[in-house]
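anyone seen this seq b4? input:
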Amino acid sequence: MRFVADSMLGRLARWLRILGYDTVYFPHIEDRLILRIAREEDRILLTRDRGLVKVRGLKRYLLLRENDPFKQLKEVITALRLTPYRGSDRFGIPSLVRCPVCNALLRRIPKEEAEGHVPEYVYNTVREFKRCPGCGRFYWKGTHPERAQRKLTEVLSDC
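predicted toks r here
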């Protein structure tokens, strides 16, 4: 499933990307452009703007009621019947496949390519690295996935 999130939903877009969903988001975009992206790229529009969903011809959208990004995430998963990623007995985060910042697909890189771009301790203790071809950020498994997994478990436990 592919999404376009309106300018009020940046944190939701980031969490959908972390879960592996193709989610485009622009912090400053005109309504007509976001509608065009939704139609032309066959994306589901995620919005809190009631006026935006009244536009004639808009077929695929979800009008969110919640303010909190984690409640919004739960709302999206429940309303669209998405299957959250699961670990053994609890929700888990898959290995990142999309950049949480720019939505590009991440590429696995040789460890040597990360040298000088990540902290020395990280370089010496981590085996696998990924890099975003869009924004150039480097990613590795650290403590963030564990904290994020705990938060997702808490938020999505009854989905």
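Helices lie at 10-18, 31-40, 69-79, 111-114, 120-125, 144-156. The radius of gyration is 17 Å. kinda curious what u guys think
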